[in-house]
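Design request, tokens follow.
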């Protein structure tokens, strides 16, 4: 285990990257909101998730934390993309931040309005990287990309799924996050 200050919100104790035995994904859930003070409904929902996952460290990153991380630790082109977005479109910036922080630091990203009905251990311990999915038609390209990046397609509804970003998990520098953060899209 090692502490990495850049992988921790400003003013918080350094994040110690605890991992599951045989796994490399840190037991840290990284979440973002525009400010540290959460609305009641978000805070109560988050407390339920924390109770369901007591072995995970839960972190809240506000806009200031995300901006600091992007300035100091993100890959150059991802940094450029983040700051090219108007700050009033915080959700779009958060979309970029979640990939950048998982690429650099690893862990789990989970939208604050997402619901889990079981512990993260029940499905995360089978894979070192995970991307949430929603039942839908998926292209052969997407399935082939998942296979090329060594991401299991087991458990997909009928082998078909649309990737979603409300829940992401990966060890630091995982090939999937590296692909997203190192290669500009046309």
């Amino acid at each position: 285990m090692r502490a990495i200050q850049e992988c921790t919100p400003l003013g918080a104790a350094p994040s110690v990257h605890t991992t599951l035995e045989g796994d490399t994904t840190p037991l840290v859930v990284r979440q973002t909101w525009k400010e540290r003070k959460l609305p009641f409904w978000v805070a109560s929902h988050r407390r339920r998730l924390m109770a369901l996952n007591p072995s995970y460290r839960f972190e809240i990153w506000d806009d200031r934390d995300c901006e600091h991380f992007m300035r100091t630790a993100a890959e150059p082109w991802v940094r450029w993309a983040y700051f090219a977005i108007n700050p009033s479109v915080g959700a779009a910036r958060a979309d970029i931040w979640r990939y950048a922080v998982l690429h650099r630091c690893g862990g789990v990203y989970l939208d604050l309005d997402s619901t889990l009905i079981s512990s993260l251990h029940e499905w995360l311990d089978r894979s070192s990287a995970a991307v949430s999915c929603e039942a839908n038609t998926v292209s052969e390209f997407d399935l082939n990309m998942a296979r090329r990046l060594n991401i299991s397609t087991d458990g997909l509804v009928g082998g078909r799924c649309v990737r979603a970003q409300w829940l992401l998990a990966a060890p630091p520098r995982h090939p999937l996050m590296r692909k997203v953060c190192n290669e500009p899209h046309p």
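Comment from the thread starter after seeing the answer: thanks! Strands lie at 3-4, 15-16, 28-32, 57-61, 107-110, 130-134, 162-170.
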